[in-house]
Amino acid sequence: MRGRKTRLGLIGTGFIADVHLQVLASVPEVQVVAVCDVAAERARKLADKHGVPQAFGSLDEMLANAELDAVHVLVPPALHARLAATCLEKGLHVLVEKPLVLRADEVADLQRLADEQQVVLAVNHNQTFHP
Fold first, then answer.
1. Dmax of the chain from CA atoms?
2. What is the dihedral of CA 7, 64, 43, 76, to 10 degrees?
3. 3-state SS string over the chain?
4. Sequence-ordered list of residues with C-beta below 8 angstroms from that of 76, at least 6 positions apart, any chain
5. pTM (global) more than 0.85
6. Annotated catalytic sites, by residue?
7. pLDDT tens readout for residues 31-52
Protein backbone atom coordinates (compact mmCIF):
# COMPACT_ATOMS: atom_id res chain seq x y z
CA MET A 1 0.00 0.00 0.00
CA ARG A 2 2.92 2.27 -0.65
CA GLY A 3 2.02 5.73 -1.80
CA ARG A 4 -1.60 5.58 -0.68
CA LYS A 5 -3.74 4.92 2.33
CA THR A 6 -4.77 1.40 3.27
CA ARG A 7 -8.40 0.96 2.18
CA LEU A 8 -10.33 -0.73 4.96
CA GLY A 9 -13.77 -2.26 5.29
CA LEU A 10 -15.65 -3.21 8.44
CA ILE A 11 -17.75 -6.37 8.57
CA GLY A 12 -20.43 -5.87 11.19
CA THR A 13 -21.74 -2.54 12.48
CA GLY A 14 -22.65 -3.25 16.09
CA PHE A 15 -21.29 -1.42 19.15
CA ILE A 16 -17.65 -2.34 18.65
CA ALA A 17 -17.64 -1.05 15.05
CA ASP A 18 -18.22 2.46 16.35
CA VAL A 19 -15.16 2.08 18.61
CA HIS A 20 -13.05 0.84 15.68
CA LEU A 21 -14.15 3.80 13.57
CA GLN A 22 -13.32 6.28 16.33
CA VAL A 23 -9.81 4.87 16.64
CA LEU A 24 -9.26 4.49 12.90
CA ALA A 25 -10.11 8.17 12.39
CA SER A 26 -6.82 8.96 14.17
CA VAL A 27 -4.72 6.72 11.91
CA PRO A 28 -3.66 8.85 8.93
CA GLU A 29 -2.45 5.89 6.87
CA VAL A 30 -5.90 4.24 6.85
CA GLN A 31 -9.09 5.18 5.06
CA VAL A 32 -12.27 3.31 5.96
CA VAL A 33 -14.03 3.05 2.61
CA ALA A 34 -16.88 0.63 3.37
CA VAL A 35 -18.94 -1.04 6.05
CA CYS A 36 -21.32 -3.96 5.74
CA ASP A 37 -23.92 -5.61 7.92
CA VAL A 38 -26.90 -7.87 7.32
CA ALA A 39 -28.85 -4.98 8.88
CA ALA A 40 -28.22 -2.71 5.89
CA GLU A 41 -29.91 0.33 7.43
CA ARG A 42 -27.69 0.09 10.50
CA ALA A 43 -24.67 -0.08 8.19
CA ARG A 44 -25.82 3.03 6.33
CA LYS A 45 -26.40 4.96 9.58
CA LEU A 46 -22.95 4.10 10.90
CA ALA A 47 -21.35 4.98 7.57
CA ASP A 48 -23.12 8.34 7.54
CA LYS A 49 -22.12 9.06 11.16
CA HIS A 50 -18.42 8.49 10.39
CA GLY A 51 -18.24 9.72 6.80
CA VAL A 52 -17.65 6.27 5.32
CA PRO A 53 -18.54 6.46 1.62
CA GLN A 54 -20.02 2.98 1.11
CA ALA A 55 -22.41 0.78 3.08
CA PHE A 56 -23.56 -2.69 2.09
CA GLY A 57 -26.05 -5.30 3.28
CA SER A 58 -23.71 -8.27 2.78
CA LEU A 59 -20.06 -9.19 2.68
CA ASP A 60 -20.42 -10.52 -0.87
CA GLU A 61 -21.81 -7.17 -1.99
CA MET A 62 -18.99 -5.28 -0.28
CA LEU A 63 -16.29 -7.54 -1.75
CA ALA A 64 -17.76 -7.15 -5.23
CA ASN A 65 -18.10 -3.37 -5.12
CA ALA A 66 -15.54 -1.84 -2.75
CA GLU A 67 -11.81 -1.53 -3.38
CA LEU A 68 -10.29 -2.97 -0.21
CA ASP A 69 -6.88 -3.86 1.12
CA ALA A 70 -8.00 -5.05 4.55
CA VAL A 71 -11.03 -5.76 6.71
CA HIS A 72 -11.95 -5.86 10.37
CA VAL A 73 -14.26 -8.77 11.25
CA LEU A 74 -16.62 -7.50 13.96
CA VAL A 75 -19.44 -10.03 13.91
CA PRO A 76 -20.54 -12.68 16.42
CA PRO A 77 -17.75 -15.22 17.09
CA ALA A 78 -19.54 -18.13 15.39
CA LEU A 79 -19.11 -16.27 12.07
CA HIS A 80 -15.43 -15.33 12.47
CA ALA A 81 -13.82 -18.35 10.79
CA ARG A 82 -16.06 -18.36 7.72
CA LEU A 83 -15.95 -14.61 7.06
CA ALA A 84 -12.23 -14.34 7.75
CA ALA A 85 -11.56 -17.23 5.34
CA THR A 86 -13.66 -15.55 2.63
CA CYS A 87 -11.63 -12.35 2.98
CA LEU A 88 -8.28 -14.11 3.15
CA GLU A 89 -9.13 -16.02 -0.03
CA LYS A 90 -9.65 -12.61 -1.70
CA GLY A 91 -6.14 -11.56 -0.67
CA LEU A 92 -7.22 -9.13 2.04
CA HIS A 93 -5.44 -8.50 5.31
CA VAL A 94 -7.80 -9.51 8.14
CA LEU A 95 -8.14 -8.32 11.73
CA VAL A 96 -10.65 -10.34 13.76
CA GLU A 97 -12.14 -9.21 17.05
CA LYS A 98 -11.53 -11.73 19.82
CA PRO A 99 -11.93 -14.65 19.88
CA LEU A 100 -10.28 -15.44 16.56
CA VAL A 101 -12.32 -18.63 16.17
CA LEU A 102 -14.39 -20.97 18.32
CA ARG A 103 -12.50 -24.18 17.50
CA ALA A 104 -8.73 -24.52 17.72
CA ASP A 105 -8.52 -26.51 14.48
CA GLU A 106 -9.86 -23.49 12.55
CA VAL A 107 -6.73 -21.49 13.37
CA ALA A 108 -4.47 -23.61 11.16
CA ASP A 109 -6.87 -23.30 8.22
CA LEU A 110 -6.94 -19.52 8.48
CA GLN A 111 -3.18 -19.29 8.92
CA ARG A 112 -2.65 -21.47 5.84
CA LEU A 113 -4.88 -19.14 3.80
CA ALA A 114 -3.03 -16.06 5.08
CA ASP A 115 0.32 -17.65 4.25
CA GLU A 116 -0.82 -18.66 0.75
CA GLN A 117 -2.09 -15.15 0.01
CA GLN A 118 0.87 -13.48 1.78
CA VAL A 119 -1.43 -11.33 3.91
CA VAL A 120 -1.69 -10.60 7.60
CA LEU A 121 -4.17 -12.39 9.85
CA ALA A 122 -4.47 -10.85 13.32
CA VAL A 123 -6.74 -10.97 16.33
CA ASN A 124 -7.52 -8.07 18.63
CA HIS A 125 -9.34 -7.09 21.80
CA ASN A 126 -9.42 -3.34 21.40
CA GLN A 127 -11.07 -2.63 24.76
CA THR A 128 -8.11 -3.94 26.80
CA PHE A 129 -6.78 -0.47 27.60
CA HIS A 130 -9.88 1.60 26.77
CA PRO A 131 -11.15 3.64 29.74
1. 38
2. -90
3. CCCCCEEEEEECCCHHHHHHHHHHCCCCCEEEEEEECCCHHHHHHHHHHHCCCEEECCHHHHHHHCCCCEEEECCCHHHHHHHHHHHHHCCCEEEEECCCCCCCHHHHHHHHHHHHHCCCEEEECCCCCCC
4. none
5. yes
6. 98
7. 999 999 999 999 999 999 999 9
